[in-house]
Amino acid sequence: MAYRLSRYQQARLDAAFARADRESALRKQDGRCKYCLCKLNYKNVTRDHVVARATGGLDHRNNIVAACVRCNRLKGSMSVKLFLRLITHPLPGEHMVYRMIWFDRRLNIALDEMEKNVFRAVGIKQ
Ligand SMILES: [Zn+2]
Known about the structure:
Layout: H1 7-28, E1 46-49, E2 64-67, H2 69-75, H3 80-88, H4 96-121
Antiparallel strand pairs: 1-2
């Protein structure tokens, strides 16, 4: 006889799996948002479905990346290919918010580079 969970138990179980997916994605991505590369923690990370559920994406860890709230909301049910194009090569006339993410990405990459150079200069191995 299979044990049936109550709705409450099922919701708690789903939330635990969602939390585990979110946290494991965050660890894999070095604590960064997949899109803007900002630093995230376990409190502000969200699960982004690479292929949105609205377009047939599965609720499975292979389809989940860690993203900040802004990127997750903005991407919505957009394809990841289009979203990456919008934030890595924003074109004139496209919404300003994509340019802001583009800028954040560039800034985060530059800060990482600077940090590496500082550590190298003082002889700290990372
Ligand atoms: Zn982000």
